[in-house]
Write a structure and sequence with these properties.
It is a single chain. The protein has two domains: 281 residues, Bira Bifunctional Protein, Domain 2 (BirA Bifunctional Protein, domain 2); 94 residues, Anticodon-binding domain (Rossmann fold), CATH 3.40.50.800. 43% of the residues lie in helices and 18% in strands. The strands form three sheets. The protein has an eight-stranded mixed β-sheet with strand order 1-5-6-11-10-9-7-8. A five-stranded mixed β-sheet has the order 13-12-14-15-16. Strands 2-4-3 form a three-stranded antiparallel β-sheet. α7 crosses α13 and α9 runs antiparallel to α10. The mean pLDDT is 91. The chain binds one RNA strand of 77 nucleotides through α3, β6, β11, α15 and α17.
Length: 458
RNA sequence: GAGGUUGUAGCUCAGUUGGUUAGAGCGUCGGAUUGUGGUUCCGAAGGUCGCGGGUUCGAGACCCGUCUUCCUCCCCA
């Protein structure tokens, strides 16, 4: 009966010390977002299933958490579909709502719905949890926060540049020592598919190429062969494996390789512009790499694709993003291009923890503790406590006149900076004892002197 | 969704081929004569051995199921 309570797999509780770190992380991110002119919005944690389904590809649909219909709505269950073993249709009839899978699709819905209330280009940021019915692993959770910035209503490549600057600024501000911002362009990938004569199979092609790092050239070829790509196609793909060197080297090789692909050339133009502009402006700690094999990213990307990886840690991508030209069209609003990126807060948290990069002062939760010496001195302590709080310091008084030893141990555990001791001894001399916990030094002060000192702190 | 792996006090882990009241370190709490923490000394509390079945005279150890952990795929932040 009295079983130990538990939480679902892939979810976590956050203790005060963890929340302090997460707040620091979110605040650092928000500060940069605001500086680039983005304003926050929020959307519901669950959407209508029809809004989400079909936007993330087949795999994506599988990972969407569905919310079971309740009450009378359960009667809507499509038993016929079940009888026919059509599980997807049956599932849809059981759940007309679902937890959001990311923040981009709900944002697209938001834009379509509020198009007449928004000014374009519309720049928004959004920091909220998302849910995925994934199998948990290191750095993969079923509930995690994404921090998204997106612009819709402009196809200007200046926004690609701006978003790269945001990657660089946020991660630099978080003191991350090294990270690579990988960039590619969906149009280049389309060009490759076109040149190889498999334009309609771009997804299978790019998904396989994306694994080059992991499974090697032969692995990629094997996977493609297995998926039914012909030997001729494989031969046309092979040269790509040798496209190495600097960003410009790779672009030059592709210029030639994609000579007969209009869309491919367009992709290279876009990429070149972005790379050149960023190079002129310079980055702080980030390194911007054109990665031909970068193909991931959801199906709805149409232009630039981004992915960021932290150096020296075993962790998947910590950020992602890209341009999507047709996402709002799926929801009924055409000709509205958008581009955006997402910071994976929980993964970044894990990286910062592993590299020990959180500022130490985040642990300080209480500035001042007043020792409780009992009824006789309580009123005067409470008044001084009130004045201390009025100065903006976090202060409290111990709830009972426990032994001094215990009260100081509490102060120590709470990592309190100062302890004020104002008992009968001190009050007789119209003084108090201020103890600085870290050094252990104590001094006698008047109440006025104490408040003057505190004023300088806050 | 596929395959593998893990689960013993709050935490990190011991626990011999199944055999008496399941242990340690750390942490927590209490104490070491009057108002001084982080170091030391003494003491105490705390475990349905993830959960549910089964095998056995007997199971923390073996079997099955289930949940969870971590890993490899798939996919992704």
């Amino acid at each position: 009966m009295a079983q130990k309570p538990a939480i679902p797999k892939g979810t976590r509780d956050f203790l005060p010390a963890e929340v302090a770190k997460r707040t620091y992380l979110f605040d650092t991110i928000k500060k940069v977002f605001r500086r680039y002119g983005f304003a926050p919005i929020e959307t519901p944690s669950f959407e209508l299933s029809t809004t989400l389904l079909g936007k993330y590809g087949e795999e994506g649909d599988r990972l969407i958490f569905r919310i079971l219909n309740s009450g009378e709505k359960m009667r809507k269950a499509d038993l016929e579909a079940l009888a026919q073993d059509n599980l997807p249709r049956f599932a849809n009839s059981l759940a007309e709502k679902a937890l959001r899978y990311d923040l981009t699709v709900p944002f697209a819905r938001f834009v379509v719905q509020h198009q007449n209330e928004l000014n374009f280009p519309f720049k928004r940021y959004q920091i909220q949890p998302v849910w995925r019915a994934d199998r948990p692993q290191h750095g993969r959770y079923q509930e995690f926060y994404q921090c998204d910035v997106d612009v819709v209503g402009s196809d200007s490549l200046l926004y690609e540049v701006e978003l790269i600057q945001i990657f660089d600024e946020v991660l630099t501000n978080l003191q991350l020592p090294g990270f690579v911002i990988q960039i590619n362009n969906r149009k280049i990938l389309s060009g490759i598919a076109e040149v190889c004569g498999v334009a309609e199979r771009i997804v299978d092609l790019t998904v396989a190429i994306d694994k080059l790092d992991k499974i090697g050239e032969q692995g990629v070829l094997d996977e493609l062969a297995q998926k039914g790509f012909t030997e001729t196609t494989l031969q046309q793909i092979k040269p790509l494996f040798d496209f190495k060197g600097s960003n410009t080297d790779k672009i030059n090789l592709l210029r030639n390789y994609l000579a007969n692909s209009e869309v491919g050339q367009k992709g290279l133009d876009e990429l070149t512009y972005v790379l050149d502009t960023v190079a002129q402006l310079g980055l702080q700690r980030g390194q911007l790499d054109f990665e031909i094999t970068l193909a991931r990213g959801l199906n709805y990307y149409t232009g630039a694709i981004f992915e960021v990886k932290a150096l020296d840690v075993k962790m998947g991508s910590i950020c992602g993003g890209g341009r999507y030209d047709d996402l709002t069209a799926l929801l009924g609003l055409k000709n509205l291009s958008g581009v955006g990126i997402s910071f994976g807060a929980d993964r970044i948290y894990d990286v910062l923890t592993e590299l020990n990069l959180f500022p130490a002062e985040l642990e300080l939760s209480l500035d001042v503790l007043f020792v409780n010496f009992g009824e006789a001195t309580l009123a005067q302590n409470l008044h001084l406590l009130k004045k201390t709080r009025a100065q903006g310091l976090a202060a409290e008084i111990y709830p009972s006149a426990a032994k001094l030893q215990k009260q100081l141990k509490y102060a120590n555990d709470r990592k309190v900076r100062y302890v004020v001791m104002m008992g009968e001894e001190e009050l007789l001399q119209d003084q108090l004892t201020l103890k600085e916990m870290e050094s252990g030094l104590q001094q006698k002060l008047s109440q006025a002197e104490l408040l003057t000192k505190f004023e300088q702190l806050s």
